[in-house]
Design goal:
The structure holds two protein chains of two kinds. Chain A is of the alpha+beta class. In chain A, 34% of the residues lie in helices and 25% in strands. In chain A, helix 8 crosses helix 12, helix 9 packs parallel to helix 10 and helix 10 runs parallel beside helix 11. Chain A is elongated and about 90 Å long. Chain B is globular, with a radius of gyration of 19 Å. Classes of the chains: A alpha+beta, B alpha/beta.
């Protein structure tokens, strides 16, 4: 779930006229100072991080004057919570709270609908309150089409024992909260506490909104740069990987870095799963052998070879991993030679120098393993493929043996450089560029690219390969980026094909960590 | 019999002219599924694998009688529209294959389906297969392998992971335990037919003697199955594996989730609840065929 910080959530509440305390976002003690001057009242300074219990962690400070606030804010800036460093604080006017409530909306899987929850007791420990005092908590399913009506809100609140003007004030907030949730497609939207001030105003004192990851593309105005639920800020590799996924709808690529800053020999594995359930079991299998996971990756849903290639390149850009483990459900419906070719291209470019075990069970597994093993034999490290009758556990055991017996130092001996074509013939694909060096192709005897091209879009013209369709059609997706023309050409052709599949930001990242 | 797809199915494929639509139509047709029509807006008046293509679902219904099932392969942002179109045209069973369909879109589909008394599998599903009868979606990938992997018998499979659905189907068949139908309920939080809906269908299917369920952490699907067993609505033997035992339990961001779900959703809670009602919990995935065989032996 793409979570929003408190200040962003409150901005959305204000858009629908839900009152919030006067507040200003600040990124330095100086900005805090200026903010307090502008607010012109005692303030509360709140760390903007995705964590519960901020007060207990020192992430909330109170101050009377601009100077006091400036020095108090120094205690918050730089504070680390779950690897999140506090870089922003919300400076808000202090409010005098008379009573606290809870209002929240969540998508309930059992009801297949949003549910509005209101509690006449709010604040910290709301789950315990709800469990202990069920009579104070009201829940109501929201009709996705007709929405949440004022009368429903009033009756929901009435049932928790609140009447009169307060009932109407609170109902107004609940109706508006639904509008916020609906417009921004929130998986959950909570105001806790929702407060009644001494002055008699109902206000959102805090706010947590999480937007549906799958809907983030419809809300560019929210500025969410990575729609993933993380307990820490996204790493640079997380962002690079997310951009790959964001720009390619074919299949799914999920990448999350789990550990950084480790050394060679500590047993960290680059993990490449396929399919959620199988990946989970494969992770368990590799951890059972004493390995540790550097990352979690999942490429599934019939991704093109190009996506698997990019996933492998990103996994291998993690420094100091000792092994590469690929394993999914074991009986994949997709054609596994796509994954095999993606891996081969990545392993060759990286001149793979750590042992790899890949479980490629499923459709065309025999062909997939032939491709994987035969086209990586000349690499410094061993690459072994396994099929559907091999369990994830036995594959992880094999990886352990390979790593224990591997003598290489794990450093690639030579760097890959993109070939330069003498007589280039190029065309674009959905996410890259394919180039045939017609000088090399002219001397090629096999013309293997024509035969192996999965979508069959190549033909011979003057004895060299060209597109049998228009370049526009190739770019629009008729070229499925199966990578066969390049991978097969290395061994059976005259090394005339090269497919450039850029990964934005990866080269810069590698230069920095090298 | 079997569930969801059989010899009486008359299947429409929405998005039949696309990359996935075309490839999976081939699988469905070659496996023997009765695919009678296709639909892609603006691409009517052609055929794909001899299946006639129409511009709208209503047009397909008018030209091809008794379409009762639609399998949808369109990009995620277009799924809502396609599903509402099928429901409006009176189709009662939908399979939403695509991944990443926005949740509010799924809620609208669920609403429309309920009003029209229609049901849907997915989204984010590999689909399902009834052995020797038909495939809806992409289960098995290719007809020839689907026939090799999944053998006829009396065990139903319901799973929250696509790859694991075919894995369990394959490993059971290989160990001599045949299958009636295997179903991937979909990988998302909100799915049209979660585990409880599928086990109810298996309950009503005379061909199914026992069910294997692959559960995962999150949502309350497995607990709802336990409720069904407790209420006597599901009485056949159930063998279950729950994935995610080792998953790091992150800080729960939303209090609302805890209030709605209570203690549901964790690995421990699911296992405990299922054991209470007599479900055969398998701790090691590779043991599923053996445990299933033993359970079947006690039946006969």
């Amino acid at each position: 779930m793409a979570r929003l910080h408190e200040h962003k959530g409150k901005e959305l509440l204000r858009e629908f006229k839900i009152p919030t305390p006067k507040g200003i976002l600040a990124s330095s003690p100086e900005e805090v100072f200026n903010a307090v001057k502008e607010i012109a009242s005692p303030v509360v300074i709140k760390a903007q991080i995705w964590a519960t219990g901020r007060a207990g962690l020192g992430g909330i400070q109170f101050a009377q004057t601009p100077d006091e606030a400036k020095s108090a804010s120094r205690k918050i800036f730089g504070l680390k919570v779950n690897d999140f460093e506090v870089t922003q604080v919300l400076v808000e006017a202090q409010i005098k709270i008379k009573q606290e409530f809870y209002a929240g909306i969540i998508i309930d899987d059992a009801a297949k609908s949003p549910v509005m929850i209101f509690s006449s007791m709010g604040g910290t420990g709301i789950e315990e309150i709800a469990a202990k005092h069920p009579e104070k908590v009201g829940k109501l399913k929201i009709d996705i089409i007709t929405g949440f009506k004022d009368f429903q809100a009033r009756d929901l609140i009435r049932k928790t024992g609140i009447s009169g003007r307060l009932q109407m004030q609170l109902a107004d907030v609940l109706v508006k909260l639904w509008k916020v949730a609906k417009k921004y497609e929130a998986r959950s939207a909570e105001i806790n506490p929702l407060v009644l001030t001494e002055e008699g105003q109902v206000m959102a004192a805090d706010c947590r909104i999480a937007v549906d990851d799958y809907a983030v593309f419809r809300h560019p105005e929210l500025g969410i740069d990575i729609a993933r639920e993380l307990n820490r800020p996204p790493s640079e590799l997380d962002k690079i990987a997310y951009d790959v996924e964001k720009n390619d709808y074919r299949g799914t690529f999920y990448f999350i870095q789990m550990e950084e800053g480790f050394q060679k020999g500590e047993g960290y594995v680059g993990f490449h799963g396929a399919g959620g359930g199988g990946s989970m079991m494969s992770m368990d299998a590799v951890v059972a052998q004493g390995f540790k996971l550097a990352n979690f990756t999942d490429t599934s849903g019939n991704p093109p070879a190009s996506k698997v290639y990019r996933a492998a390149k990103i996994i291998l850009s993690q420094q100091n991993i000792d092994a590469y483990f690929g394993s999914g459900s074991g009986v994949a419906s997709q054609e596994q030679y796509h994954s095999a070719r993606g891996l081969v291209k990545a392993f060759r470019e990286e001149n793979l120098s750590i042992p790899a075990v890949i479980r490629l069970g499923g459709n065309s597994e025999d062909l997939a393993i032939d491709i994987l093993e035969n086209y990586t034999k000349d690499l410094p490290a061993p690459v072994e493929g396994f099929k559907k009758d091999d369990s994830a556990f036995s594959c992880a055991e094999r990886l352990k043996e390979l790593v224990d017996n591997y003598k290489g130092n794990g450093k690639p001996e030579k760097q890959f450089t993109k070939p330069i074509a003498e007589k280039p013939y190029s065309f674009e694909t959905i996410t890259g560029t394919i180039t045939y060096d017609h000088a090399a192709c002219a001397d090629c005897e096999s013309k293997i690219c024509i035969e192996k091209c999965v979508p069959e879009i190549l033909k011979l013209e003057n004895d060299v390969p060209v597109l049998a369709i228009s370049k526009d059609e190739a770019k629009a997706g008729k070229c499925i980026e199966c990578l066969a023309c390049e991978v097969e050409c290395i061994f059976h052709g005259n090394k005339g094909a090269y497919i450039d599949l850029p990964i934005a930001g990866l080269e810069e990242y590698l230069e920095k960590v090298a | 019999m079997s569930i969801l797809v059989d010899e009486n199915s008359r299947v429409l494929v929405q998005g039949i002219t696309g990359r996935e639509g075309m490839a999976r139509t081939k699988l469905m047709v070659e496996y023997g599924t009765n695919v009678v029509a296709g639909c892609t807006p603006g691409k009517g008046n052609q055929t794909v694998l001899e299946v006639p293509v129409y511009d709208t679902v209503q047009e397909a219904r008018e030209n091809v009688p008794e379409i009762n099932t639609s399998v949808i392969f369109v990009p995620a942002p277009l799924v809502k529209n396609a599903a509402l179109e099928a429901i409006a045209a009176g189709i009662k069973l939908l399979v939403l294959v695509p991944d990443r369909v926005p949740i509010y879109d799924v809620l609208e589909i669920a609403h429309a389906a309920k009003e029209a008394d229609a049901q849907f599998l997915g989204p984010n599903t590999l689909g399902m297969l009834s052995v020797d009868k038909g495939v809806l979606g992409m289960m098995g990938g290719r007809a020839q392998t689907a026939k090799q992997w999944f053998k006829k018998g009396n065990v139903g499979v319901t799973s929250r992971s696509g790859g694991i659905t075919s894995s369990i189907g394959y490993y059971l068949s290989k160990s001599g335990v045949g299958l009636s139908s295997i179903v991937h309920v979909g990988g998302d939080v909100i799915v049209g037919m979660p585990h409880p809906e599928i086990v109810k269908k298996f309950q009503d299917d005379p061909e199914t003697e026992a069910v294997v369920m692959f559960g995962e952490i999150g949502t309350s699907q497995e607990e709802q199955v336990a409720d069904l067993i407790e209420n006597g609505e599901f009485t056949k033997p159930l063998i279950a594996f729950i994935g995610g035992a080792a998953a790091k339990s992150g800080t729960r961001f939303s209090h609302a989730g805890a209030i709605v779900e209570g203690n549901r959703g964790t690995h421990a809670s699911k296992v405990k609840r299922l054991k209470e009602v007599g479900v055969h919990i398998v701790d090691n995935f590779d043991d599923i065929p053996q445990v299933t065989r033993e359970v079947l032996q006690t039946l006969n």
